[in-house]
Amino acid sequence: MIVLGVESSCDETSVALSKDGKVILSNVVLSQMELHAMFGGVVPEIASREHIKGITAVFEEAIKLAGVSVDQIDLVAVTQGPGLIGSLLTGINAAKAFAFAHDIAVVGVHHIAGHIYANQIESEMQFPLLCLVVSGGHTELVLMNRHFQFEKLGETLDDAVGEAYDKVARVLDLGYPGGPKVDALARRGKLTYPMPKIDLGEGYDFSYSGLKSHVINTLNTLKMKGETVRIEDMCASFQASAVEQLMIKSRRAFDAVGAKQFVVAGGVAANAHLRDRVSDVFSDVEVLVPPLKYCTDNAAMISIAGYYQYRFGNIDENDDFNGYPRMHLERK
């Protein structure tokens, strides 16, 4: 079964083709990162226009690289939400038009389901599993007892961890995207700045607003005193606290539900310190972390998720679906 996937939820225009839910035939990603960097973040209107400009060429390139003809494609899978509505609609309309023109079934995929199924590309998911979803917009713990069955156990009560990284990077004048820069600088720093220990009790929810505010307040205090800010040390101190909260909650939930695997998904899964800590904290269990090329937004993960959604998920009878900036993972 050959599935064409489309991803356009934010600032990457991507089309990919996969076979039988495992083999990636092509994965073309057109990034807008440099364009948005001058604004310090993604500008939704610009992102939408860039998707429109590039999506036809990305479709053509992905099909060409896959070495398949259009009549060999069995299914089209497209990110339906969550994301920027203008960006989502560009991908959805392109995917539905392509599917309609060639009489191919089409399914709308949840963006986070795509990130989770990026782990299926080069590994094999074993159930029940616990997944830590970490990105610029999401910090969640999701239990899966079978394919395409999601149960959210905990989530952030305010900022997502990736969002906190980007905001800290902004006040440190590190530019956009800030997360990778904080991670790189932290590798050279020391834990010299005290950070608050976030304690939300025995549950599985997260909070990053307080940690982010503490960093901002510390920076303001140091500047008012005329003291030099050691950026590497600040990054290291912030990152250690941010990741440790993820590990404490994840290990607690994993032991409570009796999962077989611990899985990490989302853009922050590319963070080197997080990957190291996961290896340490979960050294006694099987851990899946996507290859770096599948951590950030891409259509390969949507293609794979679409395959499993078509086989095991709830499929709408008609293809007249819309895009949703906010969308519950459990819905799919």
Describe the structure.
By secondary structure, this protein is an alpha/beta fold. The protein folds into 2 domains: 2-117 and 294-331, Nucleotidyltransferase, domain 5 (2-Layer Sandwich), CATH 3.30.420.40; 125-289, ATPase, nucleotide binding domain (Nucleotidyltransferase, domain 5, 2-Layer Sandwich), CATH 3.30.420. 42% of the residues lie in helices and 18% in strands. The protein contains 10 helices and 10 strands. It has helices spanning 33-37, 44-66, 85-101, 111-117, 161-171, 178-186, 209-224, 231-257, 272-281, 299-312, and strands at 2-7, 12-19, 23-31, 75-81, 105-110, 129-134, 139-144, 151-155, 261-265, 286-288. 48% of the residues are buried. The mean pLDDT is 94.
What is the assembly state of the chains in this entry?
Answer: single chain
Give the overall shape.
Answer: globular
Mean pLDDT comes to 94
Our measurement of the CA-to-CA distance between the termini, rounded to an integer number of angstroms, reads 21 Å
CATH-defined superfamily of the largest domain: ATPase, nucleotide binding domain
Helix segment tally: 10
**Rounded radius of gyration (Å):** 20 Å
Q: How much strand?
A: 15-25%
| Overall SS class | alpha/beta
Outline of the structure:
This protein has helices spanning 33-37, 44-66, 85-101, 111-117, 161-171, 178-186, 209-224, 231-257, 272-281, 299-312; strands at 2-7, 12-19, 23-31, 75-81, 105-110, 129-134, 139-144, 151-155, 261-265, 286-288. The protein is an alpha/beta fold and 332 residues long. The protein folds into two domains: 2-117 and 294-331, Nucleotidyltransferase, domain 5 (2-Layer Sandwich), CATH 3.30.420; 125-289, Nucleotidyltransferase, domain 5.
